[in-house]
Specification:
The structure is a single chain. The protein is 29% helix and 17% strand. It is an alpha/beta fold. Strands 2-1-4-3 form a four-stranded mixed beta sheet, with helices on one face. The longest helix is centred in the C-terminal third of the chain and has 28 residues.
């Protein structure tokens, strides 16, 4: 079977669709046929754009038929996704993935986990803290950097490790408000995040691979696990995840699961079936050995010690 990761990368490069769930939907509907999936995802008007020609009868009569007329096409559509001509690009030529950084920010008695790519700035961290703590960004003073930084300092320029700890100081006269109360049983923060996009940084421990996948907040945890199954062929029941909040379940949306926004790190591995199978075989062998001893004792009347010979 052709590498599904390569097919997915080619599909996203050609269509510009970053939503991982939507990309998987088109590929699954097309049985992972790249050209068919792109044909379904691209607007029909864009696909037919190259077939537009200028009718001969509208050409000026003064033009000699021996003169070659350059074909005139209408202006390209205003469309956020690249044109179909991008298919001529060979291979999944994509920029290298950004390095994901984990921050644990302590502010008074609250700890806020933040995951951002190193292409972001120090100001991005302050903006996320503002959303979490509802404190103005100009009142947030971050400490723990190894050098002097400003809001515009790129994280990639600081040579930071993957895991970092920061201390946030705010003036004593500013209080951190409690979480907003529920409105009609619904958290307004969750309602707002349902329409936002979450970038999941998933590390496949078995194959030493990292996936940076984009999902809308309305997707459920189960849909994320099914998406990983589409890439790895590891059934959901055999997936062992780390990084989901303890109180979360498969039916929760990403917005409702309280994972970090806009990025969150997860790890996944396959359930250790081999170890369980080996343990089961040993138990069966021991059972057979005990059964042989019992039968021998019944026929001879002698108490036998277990044999050290391997029983197959």
């Amino acid at each position: 079977m052709e590498n599904r990761e390569e097919i997915l990368a080619n599909f996203q490069a050609c269509t510009g669709i970053e939503d991982f769930g939507l990309a998987i939907y088109h590929l699954e509907e097309s049985n992972w046929n790249l050209m068919t999936a792109i044909s379904h995802a691209m607007p029909e008007s864009v696909q037919n754009l190259s077939s537009v020609q200028v009718p001969v009868e509208i050409l000026p009569q003064s033009v000699s038929p021996d003169i070659e007329i350059e074909e005139v096409l209408p202006p390209p559509m205003k469309w956020s996704e690249p044109a179909y001509d991008s298919l001529i690009c060979a291979g999944p030529s994509q920029p290298p993935a950004a390095r994901m950084l984990n921050f644990m920010v302590e502010c008074r008695d609250r700890h806020t986990p933040i995951v951002v790519p190193d292409t972001e700035t120090v100001g991005t961290i302050k903006n996320i803290l503002h959303d979490e703590l509802d404190v103005p960004t100009d009142k947030l003073n971050l400490h723990g950097w190894k050098c002097k930084v400003s809001n515009n300092t790129l994280l990639s320029s600081l040579n930071l490790p993957k895991d970092n700890q920061l201390l946030c100081h705010i003036p004593c006269d500013i209080e951190i408000p409690e979480r907003k109360p529920l409105e009609n049983g619904k958290d307004p923060e969750i309602l707002e995040r349902l329409s936002r996009d979450f970038r999941l940084n998933i590390t496949d421990l078995d194959n030493n691979k990292e996936y940076n996948l984009l999902y809308p907040g309305s997707k459920t945890i189960l849909e994320v696990k099914n998406g990983f199954y589409s890439l790895s062929n590891v059934p959901v029941s055999k997936q062992v995840w780390q990084g989901w909040p303890d109180e979360s379940d498969c039916n929760m949306t990403l917005a409702g699961s309280r994972i970090s926004f806009p990025c969150h790190s997860l790890t996944v591995s396959k359930a250790p079936e081999a170890a369980n199978s080996q343990r089961s075989r040993k138990q069966v062998s021991l059972f057979k050995l005990t059964e042989i001893i019992d039968i021998t004792h019944a026929h001879t009347g002698r108490n036998l010690k277990p044999s050290l010979h391997k029983v197959t």
